[in-house]
Amino acid sequence: xxxxxxxxxxxEVQAVAHKKxxxxxxxYYASGAEDEIALREAQMAFKRIRFLPKMLQGLPxxxxxxxxxxxxxxxxSSPLIVPPMAMQKLAHPDGEIGACRAxxxxxxxxxxxxxxxxxxxxxxxxHSSTVVPPSEGESLSSLKMFQLYVYKDRRVSESLIRRxxxxxxxxxxxxxxxxxxxxxxADIRNRFHLPAPLRLENFIGESTTTEIDKxxxxxxxADHSQAHFDSTLDWSIVPWLRSVTTLPIVVKGILRxxxxxxxxxxxxxxxxxxxxxxxxxxxxxxxxxxxxxxVSALEGSGIDAWLxxxxxxxxxxxxxxxxxxxxxxxxxxVLWGLAAGGEKGVSRVLSxxxxxxxxxxxxxxxxxxRDLSPDFLVMPGMTPFCRPSSQGGGGRRGIVGSRx
Length: 404
Ligand SMILES: Cc1cc2nc3c(=O)[nH]c(=O)nc-3n(C[C@H](O)[C@H](O)[C@H](O)COP(=O)(O)O)c2cc1C
Ligand SMILES: CCCCC(=O)C(=O)O
What we know:
Its EC number is 1.1.3.15. The protein has 14 helices and 14 strands. It folds into 2 domains: about 5-370, TIM Barrel (Alpha-Beta Barrel); about 380-404, no CATH class. It is about 40% helix and about 15% strand. The N and C termini lie far apart (about 40 Å). The chain has helices at about 10-20, 25-30, 35-45, 95-105, 120-130, 155-165, 185-190, 210-215, 220-230, 235-245, 255-265, 285-300, 315-320, 330-365; strands at about 50, 65-70, 75, 80, 110, 145-150, 170-175, 250-255, 270-275, 305-310, 325-330, 375-380, 385, 395-400. Flavin mononucleotide binds next to helix 2 and helix 14.
């Protein structure tokens, strides 16, 4: 199991990572808040959705996974994104650099967390200097983005944004479902802190690192977010961000249609549907269940809906795309890949997921990700019926029944 090429699914990688990591680090990555209902539900909700595949579609040998995002500004090779995840050197010395390099090599986008164990500038230059060989004659393209936690001292946030912009990050993701930090019992029990010599590299020399670097009475993360993050934010944060940066703005952590409408009114560039991997408010709706309402709130606006939470299979990615997500994030499995095999481990995780995505598209009968629609799915509690149209040719499909 040491050799990443021997792994055949993402669950297997988690088991390898578990054996290699310290208990506090593994628990920090794996756990959710309180009873972990939201964590489990995010995965389970995918499994309740069924496919209604189309046959004999005259598919190309390889289905096309290109997507246009951020109002058509960028065409990306893949709808996959590595969402922001803090402290990646806890998994492996390759840390954020290994993860972003592996992502770029696969044409997968990467979002760097504020709470990284590698400096913004170092991640940017590693990402830029990673040369991606053309794949089957096509050059792979992906984005690098920066995720922001808004500090009580706005000068801290402003300086992070300016550094990310100067370093060439292409979008700013602002996370709105934290603070306060969710009640993560494993971290409290473990008195989680960042073991030396690891540090929050974006804040060297600033008081903002102190609570996380030292073992305290409780979770260092909770202490840090309480001491420094602004928990009083409202929608006026969007115009403030616009006054500081020209980067596209993505709001991460939305689960409601009316919040998506507010995001639309504030002309954000994308709404990221997420429950923070079940690490914040427990018992939230699963992101995949929240997606359709958000997508319909954004309809006609040109604003993308992105999604993460519980994505563990190519079929999960296809379901999210069919329900209208433009980008789909895969979180913990990337950390397991990193812990189990460094950059090579992440690369293997992403290649398995891409392969599963390609196979699932073919089996579902979609020539490209852009051909996916809810028509490929049967949602829980609904009974499908498919009728040929009276004119012959393409059939008509409807769904009877009500939501459970
Ligand atoms: C260890 C860990 C650290 C995270 N750190 C951040 C972070 O710094 N910023 C953020 O917006 N989200 C953070 N998240 C949430 C992820 O961006 C993402 O929403 C979530 O992991 C997706 O769920 P999944 O792990 O089931 O794929 C973190 C998640 C994990 C597991
Ligand atoms: C204090 C925030 C820590 C990073 C984070 O977002 C997470 O652990 O989920």
